[in-house]
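ASSEMBLY PREDICTION REQUEST
Request ID: AP-0331
Submitted by: J.K., bench scientist
Number of chains: two
Total residues: 1479
Priority: normal
Notes: Please return the full assembly, not individual chains.
Input sequences:
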Amino acid sequence: MPRRTDIQSILVIGSGPIVIGQACEFDYSGTQACRVLKEEGYRVILVNSNPATIMTDPELADATYVEPITPEFVERIIAQERPDAVLATMGGQTALNVAVALAQRGVLEKYGVELIGANIDAITRGEDREAFKRVIESLTDVPGGAPEVARSVICHTVAEVEAAADQLGLPVVLRPSYTLGGVGSGFAHDRDELRRMAQTGLDASPATEVLVEESVLGWKEFELEVMRDRQDNTVIVCSIENLDPMGVHTGDSITVAPALTLTDREYQRLRDIGLAVIRAVGVDTGGCNIQFAVNPVDGRVIVIEMNPRVSRSSALASKATGFPIAKIAAKVAVGYTLDEIRNDITQETPASFEPTLDYVVVKVPRFAFEKFPTAEDTLTTHMKSVGEVMALGRNFTEALGKALRSLEDPRAPFVLHGPVEPDLDHLLATIARPHDGRLGQVVQALRAGATVEQVHAVTAIDPWFLDQLQLLVDLARELETAPDLTVELLRRAKRHGLSDRQIGLIRHLPEAVVRGLRWALGLHPVYKTVDTCAAEFAARTPYHYSTYDEETEVAPRTKPAVLILGSGPNRIGQGIEFDYSCVHAAMVLSEQGYETVMVNCNPETVSTDYDTSDRLYFEPLTEEDVLEVYRAELAAGPVAGVIVQLGGQTPLKLAQALKDAGLPIVGTSPEAINLAEERGAFGQVLKAANLPAPRYGMATGFEEARAIAAEIGYPVLVRPSYVLGGRGMAIVYDDVTLGAYVTEVTVATADNPIMVDKFLDDAVEIDVDALFDGEELYVGGVMEHIEEAGVHSGDSACSLPPITLGEEVIDRIRRSTEAIARGVGVRGLINIQYALAGDTLYVLEANPRASRTVPFVSKATGTQLAKAAALIMLGDSIAALRAQGRLRAVGDGASPRAGGPTAVKEAVMPFNRFRTSDGRSVDVILGPEMKSTGEVMGLDRSFGVAFAKSQAASYGSLPKQGRFFVSVANPDKRHAVFPIMTLATMGFEILATAGTAEVLRRNGIPATTVRKYAEGRGPDGEPTIVDTILDGGVDLIFNTPRGHTAGGQSRQDGYEIRTAAVLRDIPYITTVQGLMAAVQGIVAASREEVGVRSLQSWAEDLR
Amino acid sequence: MNAHQEQQAILVLEDGRTFHGQAYGAIGEAFGEAVFATGMSGYQETLTDPSYRGQVVVQTAPHIGNTGWNDEDDESARIWVAGYVVRDPAPRPSSWRSKRPLEAELVRQGIVGIAGIDTRALTRHLRERGAMRVGLSSVTLDAAALLDQVLASPQMAGANLVGDVTTAQPYVVPPVGGKRFTVVAVDLGIKAMTPTLMARRGIEVHVVPASTPFADIAALQPDGVFFSNGPGDPATADAEVALLREVLAAGIPFFGICFGNQLFGRALGFGTYKLKYGHRGINQPVQDLTTGIVEVTAHNHGFAVDAPRGHDVATPYGVARVSHIDLNDDVVEGLELRRDGRLVGFSVQYHPEAAAGPHDAAYLFDRFTDMMGGHR
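STATUS: Completed
Returned structure:
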């Protein structure tokens, strides 16, 4: 059947900011969908509040709305654009929830908009557990009988939950309905846990509904990715097996494709059920993901759940198989049948088949518990990982080894050398609890002499996988004891995924010596192709992975290649923003006639879509792996350069080693990078340019640190000398906290000293992204932070153009930026952070690379900086780029523009994902340590509305009226009075703790005094503020931390208030500057009707 | 690792390409036609599929043996492959149904294999150059000597292997539940799942040797006759084709699978030809030309029917037409025969009985019973 001609325009709903459970996999899927729909000639309208996405590039849609993904805003877009159809299956749970809300409010009907992909009934059946259960149990036609679901009871109150647990027997699983990535779900082992989790779950569920379910803890877990078209052609794209058995969220599990421990009969049973489920639930066109539990003792199969949309697993399955699920889902959504769609990779065979793999794919999650030291790190059914890596190999051990080194966590690759922890019982007890790094400890247990049976007994990990780990342990022992490192032994070690470094550690040799020996023996990996068909047909798409096998498939080429090193797994501090820059480089360099070669290992991203670059190497970003890719590409044809400055710290830290090995690093040289990163050298650059920086010193212990602090004066910012995303940073105000930091937070050594910087209180922090070609500087944009200096730039909201900086300051920023770029020797992008204190512009730090804000600046100014940077790196000048129209002909991104919008970036925090070990929320205070996972952009004419939009997009709309609770630390009281008065004047009822209330009353603001948490309930049961918040009696909270503390601790009252706010999802503000911005937003939103406007429309004004 | 794994083995193709690996399964030499199978599951069914008689099977899935060997999944009484080529055999099986490791079973049945070679390189070689003869050895590592033996071994084209695999004695698979039909299944290399699926539909299945005369078949007064899958070149199966013509002439409803489809084609006057490297996998898209629906199907065939698509062909037994094609390469995957507009016989080149493979085409067994029901 050809594509539908009865619809002309389609609204695609994106997934918004990156949060735990919903990451850039939806940029990958949404980008594919937009491309496909545009190619098919539809008018594509897109809404997504996340500016760091490729899908929000203005070329990808006809009208791109960077607006909040809420029913209100999406309705305004529908009213303005009048699309014929809405596609909501590409934007995760966020998009589905909005679609359901629009349907329920009658918006879709009112405007005559059809939901394509999955209809409301299918979404409801997939998501509503009771309906799903009825559907599953009705499938009596499935060969072998109707499938089963776990026995369960739907509950709406805590009492109902308790009754259900009595009936099913503890432990039970609790699953709140309609939540992202399983928020609030988990196992309850006893009654206390049950009651607490029941309340949390009911609160987290928009429907106040929790499913209580029999436990299938420890069963084998499988997933199928299923695809269906409107003729009912249905195929299984991929099977995925979770190495971590049931009990760990699939997003937090190590997973493997294809399924490896099922016979054909068992696999076909899952397949039969999968096909029946997608048909019965009624996903007419598109993909879905179905999860199964299989009892390892008797093979009993339980259907766990299905998602009637593309998902994280479908992104993984697409990368794992070469079958682009989102792209094909978009095509079938507009009427094509699978047999009419060509398989991109073979270009001959149709998409109506099931990919077959001749390799093994392993995905490993990446966690960020170090950012949330109080958070409980046991893995449960509630997802906690912030990113993931994928690796391919020709066997499981090879793929696993590559995946573990892709994580860029030095603790991740297996330790196969050195002494073994002697206490086997302790090791067995440790591995019984699922947690980040458990598999590494499983290996230690095997090294310590545990049997596969013993390990299986405590972990329930399938013995097949454990036996593969045993194989590694045996191999390491052989390596250790072999008299010589023979070519046969070395080859075997490489075939099982051991890195040169691991082999070196086992053999007591430096990594470089192992590599030299390996190369001397002619032992290099070959590169195979992901081709969907196990080589049955020729592949036309060069999507490669390395393996130690015989024959390579890298094709010779004549065009010069540019290698672009990606940014690896998403983590806090390095996420989708860097992938965006890499993708842009690939796009523009391909256009310019280069053969672009992407190297990356993150399956969620657009960069690892085989359509993005001319060649894709799905490889770890380590020195060893990158050197081998380079060697293979050099054998294929000329290499014009290697780009390391777009993928964040990951490629940057390889720069020097790669250059030393002879790789042509283009753009800013590794020496120049070092100049900016090395404190002393950078100080010289600043000195030469006569630019001030905060005073600082380096200490190797407390006494030294105290002496420096005494000299430069408190407060000081302390941090380890090597940081990413502000890890381990703190602001300290006195000797006591300094002492605590030095002893508790970090271990200072001569190799790794502590930096002690003067902290500029009350300074305005400024971020600049700029291009430099050696001659000319082009400022991409100047951003003014809303929070004061001291909040990590990644966590701070910011405004572009800067709201309070004058022309003169901007000129000074421009001149300073140019001096630094010239002094360092930048070719390409540089990001500089300044602090304006009094009238002095201090340089805080400079990063000669693409920054986190490049996509935001690019969207806000309509200028694609990463593309310009890539061209500069390969020799273009800024003058030439101006002439090509890629950069503004006159002026730059900081020049004033009549009619331009104000863009506000707001960071999105993952606090609601974490709990302390006693089940409470972790604190939500912002500081120098970066904690946000993603960002949104609010775009409007005025700052106030733009800020209000940014809040609506990230945390839900700011209230226009209601009860406003304030509790302000002494140093902040003066500045807080005026904004509080503004809200009081607008009719907000002010609640305050005694001290704050008193100050407000003295300023003529009526305030009701409420009891502090520490005071407890009053004699007549008067509630504390925490009770009031929990009862829903507060609409907005302003609470600044009392005093100043290091690390993650804060005083009890503030903590209780903020965690109650997180629990109740009430907007909370923790800085005075944030309050002032919020007030502007509330005022603006109350005064005018907030409109929506596409980037394309804004661009007309900017022209 | 262990001493056995270090025992070397070689694989030599008839064009001289040689791979070095480790011995797997029985120690010895093996010769046959090298073919690759792309299924990711179902090695036990593959190994026991009589259609692989005379073939050295290369598994493209890299891990083989993970679920061991059980007592339920055999498709016949023995392993039929001439030799077995895998990349990473599982040191230890894991399945609640496993009775012993795969390698133990290979050794027990004397099947010579090789492990640890670049199976993808070998597969690509076969894809580009076509299926060809091969030798495996774990007793000699002399490639030149082995090549001489390979070149002296028989070709698959022109091979008549039915006699090797057909049952010596007729046997009956009783219907499950009440008996609705009697079917004579001519065993050309039948897989156990085929009579099982028929029996589940109330068919009493009389499995008979390929050499059974038509009179003996007719004496059973069957409601239908079935020709199974099997190995070898259909062009050599003149006797079986003659038998099938007698069945058709007698107006007995006919169903054929795989080799049975090829013989049906020849009986109707079409030719058959050898595919370059065949279809062996469980992911092949086959389109039913009547409904447009695509089935994901299990395949194991090196030969195919040469019949015109898109128009009917008159034959002495009725009007024949191509009913199914493979969407990957347009190969004929099914035939239909109608007399006076009524279906009297049909066959498919692929495996609706699956085992291993998806169950999408199981409805064809219902079509068989419907056809027989309509003829009463």
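REVIEWER COMMENTS: Residues 1044-1050 of chain A have pLDDT under 50 and may be disordered.
SIGN-OFF: pending second reviewer
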